[in-house]
Amino acid sequence: xxxxxxxxxxxxxxxxxxxxxxxxxxxxxxxxxxxxxxxxxxxxxxxxxxxxxxxxxxxxxxxxxxxxxxxxxxxxxxxxxxxxxxxxxxxxxxxxxxxxxxxxxxxxxxxxxxxxxxxx
Length: 120
Fold this sequence. Notes:
Number of helices: 4
Shape: flat
Strand order of the largest sheet: 4-3-5
Number of domains: 1
Distance between the termini: 27 Å
Strand content: 15-25%
Number of strands: 5
Helix content: 25-40%
């Protein structure tokens, strides 16, 4: 099922799936793997491919942002998290936008130089 196909499912199904798969079970990619970074970059989407719907986008998206001097990276629901980071740090630049929260988490971890998996 493609990322866009998942948007056609009912919201309770998507939320239930996320609750079962993402809580303490997300495995971050090995930062030494040459395949991880290009793969994650290729799964990113263009900001123009989604529409702003209230405070979030439709379909829902997660952004990876560069904050401060570019040595720190954060992620969160786009565009809400983007605005929060600008208020908190003075600047935030959207680097990647994803339909998958786990892809955004993995990219943030790679950019921050962290390798391993989340504790269970």
